[in-house]
Design brief:
Strands 1, 2, 3, 4 and 5 form a five-stranded antiparallel beta sheet that branches. It contains no helices and five strands. The protein is an all-beta fold. 0% of the residues lie in helices and 50% in strands.
């Protein structure tokens, strides 16, 4: 199934066919699916409220389903696309919150996830 047709939300993939540069095992990745058109930013904060990761979408010119994805086991040779603590390091075991905002800072998707074993 194409990710763009899924309901907006957070997903753990069962395979790596959704992108050609997926790092690690499929289960080590998280997909943040949202709907819209324009420019978006994903921000992830740890349980202490510190921003640990940020990624910009660039201009998405077509209205519809889009997504960010991250590997929770990033390394220097298998990096995430954004910036921050976890660009090239594995996520620590912790509870995390995330938000995706548009260019006007409106939240289009938010939630939380837990990394149980780092």
């Amino acid at each position: 199934m194409f990710i763009g047709t899924l309901a907006d939300g957070i997903y753990i993939p069962s395979g790596k066919a959704f992108a050609d540069d997926v790092a690690g095992d499929a289960a080590d990745n998280i997909i943040f699916k949202f709907t819209g058109k324009g420019t978006y930013t994903l921000k992830i904060k740890n349980d202490a409220g510190t921003e640990v990761y940020s990624e910009d979408s660039g201009n998405l010119t077509a209205e519809g389903g889009h997504y960010f994805y991250i590997t929770t086991k990033a390394t220097a040779s298998a990096q995430n696309a954004g910036t921050g603590t976890y660009k090239n390091a594995a996520f620590d075991a912790d509870d995390y919150t995330f938000s995706i905002t548009d260019a006007s800072s409106n939240v289009v998707l938010s939630g939380s996830f837990t990394i149980a074993n780092a």
